[in-house]
Each structure stands twice: as C-alpha cells, then as structure tokens.
Design goal:
- The protein is globular, with a radius of gyration of 16 Å.
- By secondary structure, it is mostly helical.
- It contains six helices and no strands.
C-alpha cells in the first residue's frame, strides 16, 4: 500500500510559481506574451470569495513577481486589488449579472485601473511615471479568452 502525497496543492502551487517566474521573465523580452496580470486579479477575487488561503498566498507571490519584473512599487497591486474587491466589486456584482461581462471588466480593471492607481502613487511619491502601450489591448483580449476557459 502506497502513501499518497500529503500536500498536493502546495507542490502544484510551487511548480506554478516557478513556471510563472520563468514566463514573466519571457513576457518582458517578448511583448506578444501577456504577463497574465488580469488572471492573477481574477484568482485574487476567486480566492477571497472561496476563502482559500492557499490560493491567496499563491496570488500574493505571483503579484509580487509581476511588480518586481515591471518595476512597480512593492505590494501596490495587492493594495489596489483589495481596494477594488472591497469597494468596487460589490457594486459591480449588484449592477451586472452577466458573468462573462464581469470577467471582461475585471481584466480591464486589472490593467487600466492598476495603471491609473500606479500613476496616482507615482504622483504622490514624485516618481517617474509608468507608461501604457497598445499591447495592453492584446493582453486584455487574450486573458479574457483564457478566463472564459477557466
């Protein structure tokens, strides 16, 4: 009789984290690869809705990798995600019943909203402004299709 692995989620999470680390570095080099920031936001919302602390810790690690790779302030994405989840998400779920529409709004808010939030932080701390380019439109469309498959 063989013993099964005690914590398979954490082994999958560590593997996923390492794969995301490699993928994120490749997305910096090849701009046609989306950084999957919208999907990280989608899983942040899912982790809080289901109260899954393991998934939330994985999302925190993935967002820290994104911030470090793109040069944003540390933990700023988690502050933004928490703000959106606490104040904007309940109103959106009240107004919109279409699940696909909400997914598209979440992914768009992840990229455009976080960029606006980082502009606000950069203005407050007198830092160099970050830019946004046309690739973001491709990232939003691609990640919406991926979230549709989840």
């Amino acid at each position: 009789m063989q013993r099964s692995i005690t914590y398979p989620f954490y082994i999958k999470a560590i593997t996923l984290f390492l794969l995301y680390l490699v993928y994120e570095s490749l997305s910096t080099i090849y701009l046609f690869l989306p950084p999957l920031f919208g999907i990280v936001f989608f899983y942040f919302i899912r982790a809080l809705d289901k109260q899954n602390i393991g998934l939330l810790l994985l999302v925190v690690a993935l967002s820290l990798v994104y911030e470090a790779d793109k040069g944003y302030l540390m933990l700023s994405s988690l502050v933004y995600f928490s703000f959106v989840y606490k104040f904007i998400n309940p109103k959106l779920e009240q107004l919109i019943e279409c699940r696909r529409c909400l997914d598209l709004i979440y992914i768009t808010m992840a990229y455009v909203g976080y960029w606006l939030f980082s502009l606000l932080l950069e203005q407050m701390f007198v830092l160099e402004f970050s830019t946004i380019d046309w690739h973001v439109l491709w990232y939003i469309i691609f990640e919406f299709l991926v979230v549709g498959l989840l």
